[in-house]
TrEMBL record, chain A:
Signal peptide: none annotated. SUPFAM superfamilies: MetI-like. Residues 162-345, 484-663 form the ABC transmembrane type-1 domain. It comes from Mesorhizobium alhagi CCNWXJ12-2. Belongs to the binding-protein-dependent transport system permease family. This is Binding-protein-dependent transport systems inner membrane component. The keyword Amino-acid biosynthesis does not apply. It is found in: Cell membrane. Gene3D superfamilies: MetI-like.
TrEMBL record, chain B:
It comes from Mesorhizobium alhagi CCNWXJ12-2. It is a peripheral membrane protein. InterPro entries: AAA+_ATPase (IPR003593), ABC_osmolyte_uptake_ATP-bind (IPR051921), ABC_transporter-like_ATP-bd (IPR003439), ABC_transporter-like_CS (IPR017871), Gly-betaine_transp_ATP-bd (IPR005892), P-loop_NTPase (IPR027417). This is Quaternary amine transport ATP-binding protein. Keywords: ATP-binding, Cell inner membrane, Cell membrane, Membrane, Nucleotide-binding, Transport.
């Protein structure tokens, strides 16, 4: 049992070199803390088993409490005039009406009657009309190039036979985005105006962004039932927090003089908000709109688990049946949709910030060429479509299915490379994953809680120590320790792998302009992809299990490591680099002795982001059979067990919060030490 | 000669930053700098008394951190003063309701900002018309008014440009046009030319003097540039650490600086170009004849008239009546000393 001790010692010396701890006093503190940890670990098994494994009798039945609370909410809670159930029904109706409208427009057509006896009164928009309108939007927002890109992406959807699913997904987004943007804007404005309100919602926003998405699918499933409405509501909850934050930030970024101007010319509060503040901040607000669109897309895909339908459902179904080809096709359709929506919204943001002088003395046709062209297109294709079915719906005969192609491809890889892949997988599993997993599993919970608290104390004082200690103790107290350790292990291994791959790429890209441009294009595209998509290729090659999960997580969380490293290096003061060169540093010395040292805080933040990305992806890999907290949430979702889902979800959120706060505090310390703050 | 009525009077105005400022002010009516720092407060404006007369250019001059920008924002209550009285046309602004303040700001005050504060999403004409739009004036009449103002500041032809398509000087002309659109009685200019290049600054100062000769507004002008202050001001107040150290006409400041701090500014100023003949003349003896000079001319302008060998000039007021005598020796004395 003595072998792991040097590992920890090595860890502490590495920490010291990273600048997390300095001076002899610190060294002594570390030695004492590690000794205490060692003692707890070595003796707990013999003398105090309660410190090794959290005793069952001390367990807090949090899951039962949450479930009971949910039951009470659904069955008994009342606000006097109306019950809680009335409220959720009202909210559902609020979302349902626009959703039905959007869906009729894009996918089902206007129906009369209910269920299977419904008859179509009016057909939906024809595929030509949709592709045309999207191209026109592109033309308006960014010229011919954008028009071709956006139109092309949509055309792909039709050609590859993904049209119907894609339109269902698009309908959900079309409903979720405006509500999300408006809601986020209003909440953000409220937070800007009333600091009390902001204080109240900030922890809530933190939690909403760290709690894994599956976890709040569970209560939503219970409250709103299975179906697209519930999916849209889940999407709203997921996509709104960034808009709230960006709104408050960008309103706060409005120059004081502009605010003075507003007051000086006698604006009322409402005029101040809508005529002065919001328009002045609109460029940064558009960043928020883009975020809402991309997050909505991501969530609409995930929410297929509670009935969103569309492309997400296709991927999910394919994953469950291990139909790689079909899943990959749907995945590619998601990519096409994501790219089109992302570039279009960015195009509109640019358009807003560089409007040319407007001339107003022109006719209706000249002033609204795009709107009119779109209307003409819709009407014309609609009318022709009544007579010619190929105009209304893309003719199935012309569809190209690549499903079999991929299927064959995978088969070919598996036939020819099975042994190689299998050997690789087993080697990594046996030599890295399994030993690390076992090591973490053997650690005494009390020791880990104490060590985290100690780390918090060293990095950020008593408050951070309390936070780290209490949150980790809570994970143990709710009976999640074992699963949490598996989560930590998978997340840790993946984050380390992502950092080991990503940081060198970032370093290489920082110094080579052309490479940097490529890296930017690739990472932009990777970041627009919904997390679901990452599962497909991993499953294709390695089937299910921890290793597959790790591959998907590494792929997903690679981007921040690359990006922050490159940006951090590029931000290093050019004067210092010149000074280094003047002193005769070699390139290597320049990199290791000056650049990396100064970029350290940024790189730490990148690692932090990598961990956050890894955690959020990890939960989704529950679909490929991990045994961690994510799986726990996923099982809760399939059983609609609110308590179990929320408690496990919170445990993931706690891990995220502990990691985030500790690393941020470390980065802050490093920055302060170098006088960068 | 009776002075015009003060338009804006400032009595014992204080602005303290920090928590508990209000209570502290109630218990310490006249705190010293030491008392303030002991209480953890910052005295941004300390016990300021001013009166701005109708139609004059009143310049508040001070270095950064002297509290001049805070003071001008107190005058329009953009910043709430901690204590004191601000009388505008006899009405105490600090007692006015929020609705009344909106009313006053909409119709009687205008302000020009250091960094222009133009709304980036609006054209020039929309920016200038914006104060009228806020008042609910219909589009046709507000844009007509805006076009007049744009012409007044010499920007005709740029109506449909966006702010970022204009140079700094042009942007500030838009800011000036906007502040004049509501025909304010009281015009605040907060370092309007500080963000501009020196050459453009000079040009804008000339433009400002031209505008004022037409408009005859009551003006409170903030600057950190002493040369700009004496060039434009009818009267100047010099601020340091939140308090006014001296206020008076440019002549008074140049001829008799009250403190070393003020003297530091006036030292490098060529006095003859600032001081008016009226400040240097002596009482005229009976039967003084010869070349006449206006009492409002500067000493530097009077100097060439001595070239023909006169020892004394007759100083006359605007009506041509003798007001005093200007002696060659006094002028030489002043010019020799710089």
């Amino acid at each position: 049992m003595a072998s792991p001790a040097p590992t920890i010692g090595a860890g502490s010396s590495r920490l010291r070199r990273m600048g997390l701890a300095t001076g002899t006093g610190t060294l002594v503190a570390w030695v004492v803390a590690l000794l205490a940890f060692g003692i707890v670990w070595q003796t707990a098994e013999l003398y105090a088993s309660w410190a090794q494994e959290y005793p069952k009798t001390w367990m807090v039945p949090a899951a039962r409490w949450v479930s009971a609370f949910m039951k009470w909410l659904v069955n008994e809670a009342s606000f006097g005039l109306f019950t809680f159930t009335d409220l959720t029904r009202f909210l559902a109706a609020l979302v349902d009406t626009p959703y039905t409208a959007a869906r009729s427009l894009l996918s089902s057509g206007l129906l009369s009657g209910r269920g299977s006896s419904a008859t179509q009164v009016l057909p939906p928009l024809s595929w030509i009309a949709v592709v045309g309108v999207v191209s026109l939007l592109g033309l308006y927002a960014g010229g011919v190039k954008l028009a071709l890109l956006a139109g092309g992406c949509f055309l792909l959807l039709a050609v590859f036979g993904q049209w119907d699913s894609a339109m269902v997904t698009l309908a959900s987004i079309l409903v979720a985005v405006p509500i999300g943007v408006m809601g986020g804007l209003l909440i953000g404005i409220a937070a800007y105006r009333w600091p009390r309100f902001e204080e109240a919602i900030t922890p809530l926003l933190d939690l909403m962004q760290t709690i894994p998405v599956f976890a709040y699918l569970v209560p939503i499933l219970v409250l709103f039932g299975f179906g697209p409405t519930a999916a849209v509501i889940a999407t709203l909850i997921y996509a709104m927090p960034p808009m709230v934050r960006i709104t408050t930030l960008s309103l706060r970024g409005v120059a004081q003089e502009i605010i003075d101007l507003g007051r000086m010319i006698g604006c009322t509060r409402r005029q101040m908000t809508w005529r002065v503040l919001v328009p002045s901040a609109r460029e940064s607000l558009m960043v928020g709109v883009n975020q809402v669109i991309m997050l909505s897309l991501n969530m609409v895909i995930i929410a297929s688990m509670i009935g969103a339908g569309g492309l997400g459902f296709d991927v999910l179904a394919a994953l469950r049946r291990l139909q790689i080809g079909a899943g990959l096709e749907a995945g590619l359709a998601i990519v096409a949709l994501a790219v089109a929506l992302d570039r279009l919204s960015q195009g509109f943001a640019r358009k807003l910030s560089q409007r040319s002088p407007a001339s107003e003395q022109r006719g209706l046709v000249a002033r609204h060429p795009f709107t009119l062209a779109a209307l003409v297109l819709i009407l014309a294709t609609g009318l022709v479509g009544l007579a010619v079915p190929a105009v209304q719906a893309y003719p199935p005969a012309l569809e190209i299915s690549t499903g079999t192609f991929w299927e064959e491809g995978v088969k070919w890889i598996n036939i020819n490379f099975f042994d190689t892949l299998e050997a690789l997988k087993n080697a990594v599993l046996l030599n890295m994953l399994v030993p690390f997993k076992r090591f973490l599993g053997e650690l005494p919970w009390l020791g880990v809680v104490g060590l985290l608290a100690f780390l918090g104390w060293r990095l950020g004082g008593w408050r951070l120590a309390m936070l780290a200690g209490v949150l980790s103790a809570l994970i143990a107290a709710t009976g999640q320790w074992e699963k949490a350790m598996i989560t930590v292990y998978l997340c840790g291994v993946s984050a380390v792998a992502a950092a080991l791959i990503g940081i060198p790429i970032g370093i290489a890209a920082a110094e080579r302009d052309r490479l940097w441009r490529w890296v930017q294009v690739v990472s932009d595209t990777l970041q627009t992809l919904p997390s679901f998509v990452y599962l497909m290729p991993a499953v294709m090659l390695f089937r299910v299990g921890d290793f597959t999960a790790m591959i998907a997580v590494v792929a997903y969380s690679l981007v921040p490591a690359v990006r922050y490293t490159a940006l951090g290096l590029q931000k290093v003061d050019a004067g210092l680099i010149e000074a280094g060169r003047a002193m005769g540093c070699t390139r290597w010395q320049l990199l290791t002795k000056i650049k990396l040292k100064l970029a350290l805080p940024e790189i730490l933040l990148g690692i932090n982001q990598t961990i956050m990305f890894a955690l959020s992806m990890l939960v989704i890999t529950a679909l490929v059979g991990t045994r961690d907290l994510g799986q726990e949430v996923y099982i809760a979702l399939t059983k609609a067990d609110t308590g179990r889902g929320i408690v496990a979800g919170l445990a993931v959120a706690f891990i995220a919060i502990i990691a985030d706060r500790l690393i941020s505090a470390g980065a802050m310390r490093a920055k302060r030490r170098m006088g960068l703050v | 000669m009776s002075l015009p009525q003060p338009k804006l009077i400032c009595r014992n105005v204080w602005k303290l930053f920090g928590s508990g400022a209000q209570e502290f002010m109630a218990s310490h009516p006249a705190p010293t700098l030491e008392e303030l720092s002991a209480a953890g407060l910052v005295g941004a404006v300390r016990d300021v008394n001013l009166d701005v007369r109708a139609g004059e250019i009143f310049v508040i001059m001070g270095l950064s951190g002297s509290g001049k920008s805070t003071l001008v924002r107190c005058l329009s209550r953009l910043i709430e003063p901690t204590s004191g009285e601000i009388l505008f046309n006899g009405e105490n602004l600090l007692a006015a309701s929020e609705a009344r303040m909106i009313e006053i700001r909409r119709h009687q005050m205008g302000m020009v900002f250091q960094n222009f504060a133009l709304l980036p999403h609006m054209t020039v004409v929309a920016n200038v018309a914006f104060p009228l739009e806020v008042q609910g004036i219909d589009r046709t009449s507000r844009e007509a008014r805006a076009r007049q103002m744009i012409e007044l500041v010499g920007l005709s032809g740029k109506e449909d440009f966006f702010p970022r398509q204009l140079s700094g000087g042009q942007q500030q002309r838009v800011g000036i046009a906007r502040s004049l659109a509501v025909e304010p009685e009281l015009w605040f200019l907060d370092e309007p030319f500080s963000a501009l290049d020196p050459l453009i600054r000079r040009e804008m100062q000339d433009e400002f003097i031209r505008l004022q000769s037409v408009l005859k507004k009551t003006i409170v002008f903030i600057t950190h540039d002493f040369d700009e202050a004496i060039r434009l001001a009818d009267r100047i107040a010099i601020m340091k650490d939140g308090a006014v150290v001296q206020s008076g006409t440019p002549d008074e400041l140049v001829l008799s600086p009250a403190t070393d701090y003020v003297a530091e500014f006036t030292r490098n100023v060529s006095k003859a170009k600032v001081v008016k003949v009226a400040s240097l003349m002596k009482p005229a003896g009976a039967g003084l004849n010869g070349i006449a000079i206006n009492a409002k001319a500067t000493v530097a302008e009077a100097a060439p008239l001595f070239a023909e060998g006169n020892d004394v000039l007759r100083v006359q007021d605007d009506a041509g009546k003798t007001a005093g005598a200007l002696y060659r020796s006094d002028v030489v004395d002043m010019m020799m000393r710089g």
